[in-house]
DNA sequence: ACGGTGAACCAAGCGAATAT
DNA sequence: ATATTCGCTTGGTTCACCGT
């Protein structure tokens, strides 16, 4: 019932709501739930009650944690040039011996690992590493028939979100491969998926916590990071009431670009409606124009 | 037929927010 | 300050589906 695209979209929606402050301690408030249900309906034409999103959230988390079991506290992991886990058959056999669930990750990494890392990962996420994995095109073509043409919204969602924001962390950064961006998006998905998995593993194996806490530290000390233009833009895009390139949209961009105080005020409002009202007030434009 | 897998459901328990 | 309520987590189970 859940395709990879749908799962991915859902995870992305959760990140959106998180960004807007509609999720506290993994608990989505009423506005956030409504937004997720609505946007999902808009994108796929399927009405899904919130309960099912919760269940999906659970299963995704289970998958994510399963995968992390494989990589946690484990050194000496190897990768081939494409980023797939490249270890000897013996290595896999041993992993499987201590935990049978490991087998399935050998040839087929978990889909949407990039987003799961953001959603379930421990610490603050700021756009990160140029993730672009969209694992599972092959899987997806087998089932999943009727809504294939509707998923374009997800594509632009991705392209606007994957802008790397590698401030000060870049120096201590991880792998040589993490900076490549999405060329050949269509063709090399499998390769990218492998690469993504490699990135996750590398992050886990190396001192990821150190890096991320460093990030957190920076964010705490520099409010302009947490109220960055990027974040404001993301929130702006997530407002359903604002049509792309409508007068209000254009005016809002200018307003939000203008200075950090504007961004802070904008981001202060906890729900979509008040944000839109604020933008209308601040820019003098109407959403219906 | 069988085992693996993911979706769904359930029970217990916990944390946080709210009410008393 | 304490009690209540709510939703999520955790762990477990059942079921349907798929490939072997």
Q: What is the number of helices?
A: 15
* Secondary structure: number of strands: 2
In terms of per-residue confidence, which ranges show pLDDT below 50 for 5 or more consecutive residues? 78-85, 123-188, 203-209, 219-227
Gyration radius over CA: 20 Å
Strand content: under 5%
| Mean pLDDT across every amino acid position | 60
What are the key terms here?
58% helix, two-stranded antiparallel sheet, elongated, 15 helices, DNA-binding, mainly alpha, 289 residues
Could you explain how this protein is built, in words?
Residues 78-85, 123-188, 203-209 and 219-227 have low confidence and may be disordered. A hairpin with a 2-residue loop joins strand 1 and strand 2. The protein has two domains: 4-63 and 72-217, no CATH class; 222-283, no CATH class. It has 289 residues and is mainly alpha-helical. It is built from 15 helices and two strands. The protein starts with a helix and ends in a 6-residue tail after the last helix. The longest helix is centred in the first third of the chain and has 22 residues, at 50-71. Helix 1 packs antiparallel against helix 2. It binds a DNA duplex (20 and 20 nucleotides) through strand 2 and helix 3. This is (rape) hypothetical protein. Pfam families: Myb_DNA-bind_3 (PF12776).
Summarize the structure.
Residues 1-94 form the Myb/SANT-like domain. This protein is mainly alpha-helical. The chain has helices at 4-19, 30-44, 50-71, 89-98, 104-107, 113-120, 137-142, 152-161, 189-205, 208-221, 223-226, 229-237, 247-258, 260-268, 272-283; strands at 23-24, 27-28.
